Amino acid sequence: MEYSHNDAELIEQPIGYWAWAAYKAVVTRTRGALAEKDTTQPQWWVLAQVARAEHVKTRSEVSETLSGYLDVGQVVLAEEIDATIARGWLTEDAAGRLSLTAAGKDSFDELAALQGELWAERHAGVSDEEYLTTLKVLQRFIHNTGGRAWHH
User: Fold this and answer.
1) pLDDT class for 151, splitting at 50, 70, 90?
2) Looking at residues 23-45, what average pLDDT do you find?
3) Exposure string over 127-148, b if 16+ CB within 10 A, otherwise e
4) What does the radius of gyration of the chain's CA atoms come to, in whole angstroms?
5) pLDDT digits (tens, 9 = 90+) for 59-87
6) What is the pLDDT of residue 113?
7) What is the 3-state secondary structure (H, E, C) of 55-72?
8) Is 112 helix (H, G, I), strand (E, B) or coil?
């Protein structure tokens, strides 16, 4: 891979641009790969929240957890939860508890494998140490600018 600038020039590059460019590239690639499987990123998030849960989650618990993900908002999340139910991946009882169906389990397994492939693609040539440093630096930038991330 060829870098855009030499080290002396890179050190002067704006973090905002490069963080945005990385975000755009990663999200575009992820959403494109999911679209090839006829699903959306928020549908994957919903499915994963229910499939990986240690206890049964309600619609509102799933929405609360996912509400900070890429600023999708409550309306979009409600629509995406409805879409996973309409697809037959989840069921919802009268108390709003979401349960995984057999079709949902199959779709989760397929999409989880795809997510693993995308992870490997993104991380090619990036060590765990570099990745850890990158996340810590980005979180420091968020902190230093008074921003908030989902974990705050």
Assistant:
1) low
2) 96
3) eeeeeeeeeeeeeeeeeeeeee
4) 18
5) 999 998 888 776 777 788 899 999 999 99
6) 98
7) CCEEHHHHHHHHCCHHHC
8) helix
**Rounded to whole angstroms, how far apart are CA atoms 69 and 88?**
24
- CA torsion sign for 108, 111, 117, 121 is negative
What H or E segment, with its residue span, contains residue 99? strand 97-100
What is the spatial distance between Cα 81 and Cα 43, in angstroms, rounded to a whole number?
7
Q: Are 47 and 111 in contact (CB under 8 A)?
A: yes
Sheet with 90-92: strands ordered across: 57-58, 97-100, 90-92
Q: How far is CA 98 from the centre of its chain?
A: 20
Output the pTM of the full model. Answer: 0.87
